[in-house]
Specification:
236 residues; alpha/beta; Rossmann fold; five-stranded parallel beta sheet; 36% helix; binds zinc ion
Length: 236
């Protein structure tokens, strides 16, 4: 087993031994993210761009006036900064699966603003390449999507949309390259189950919208009637 994977597992185990410590501030707490750190999260509330969910006083933001996303609309529960960014990094890069639970709660609490319940047929997480699953042990977006699907009692589809080839981490790339990095990297299997269906895509972070856009394009081309997106966080 590669040393990096072993190190992640050991770090994860060390962080979750009793008493539990908050993965953000390290204080001893009964949960992996303490109440004080959860309080520091900046939630995104209206007014937001009707299309991409960016906080703005304008009906449609500057980006969406010039760029047409394939998803109908996207919304995010909180700003990707500070305590939330730390918690997401702990989940993704320190392999701490338990951090997903408080983050799912952050997403669920934002639902009064962004209720998709009556307008979607299935929930689909943004997939990662299988090699990242081997490395990390899980797909963080799938964990979040599972929590949302349970909360809304909507069918979760985890195998339909998949990553056809590995692409560099979006976070490691400059803005321009992010837009093309994921092009054509998503594929759909069992497309007959998607025909005429309305899908809700779930991801952990929205930055340029390129990943959600490309996933939405793949789903629409495969037969979905509409795609909306909901992310835990939004990079502003
Ligand atoms: Zn804390
Ligand atoms: Zn917009």
């Amino acid at each position: 087993m590669p040393i990096r994977i072993l190190r992640n597992i050991c770090l994860g185990a060390a962080d979750l031994t009793y008493p539990i410590h908050c993965v953000v501030c390290r204080r001893s707490w009964h949960s992996v993210v303490c109440a004080q750190c959860l309080d520091k999260i900046t939630h995104i509330v209206p007014p937001v761009c009707a299309r991409c969910g960016l906080p703005t006083d304008r009906h449609i933001c500057g980006t969406c006036r010039t760029r047409k996303f394939h998803f109908e609309k996207a919304r995010s529960s909180a700003v990707f900064e500070g305590a939330l960014r730390e918690a997401i990094h702990a989940l993704k890069y320190r392999n701490l699966k338990a951090v997903a639970d408080p983050l799912i709660e952050v997403m669920n609490k934002a639902y009064p603003f962004y209720n998709y319940r009556n307008s979607i047929d299935m929930i689909i997480p943004i997939p990662v390449h299988w090699s990242r699953i081997v490395e990390r042990g899980f797909n963080q977006s799938e964990l979040l999507a599972r929590g949302i699907a349970r909360h809304l009692s909507i069918r979760l589809e985890t195998a339909m949309l998949y990553k056809a080839f590995k692409t560099p981490h979006q976070a490691d790339l400059p803005f321009e390259q992010r837009l093309t990095n994921v092009a054509g990297s998503f594929a759909v299997r069992n497309a007959h189950k998607l025909q005429g269906k309305r899908a809700l895509l779930i991801d952990d972070v929205m930055t340029t919208g390129a990943t959600l856009d490309e996933a939405a394009r793949a789903l629409l081309e495969a037969g979905a009637s509409s795609v909306v997106a909901y992310t835990l966080s939004r990079s502003l």
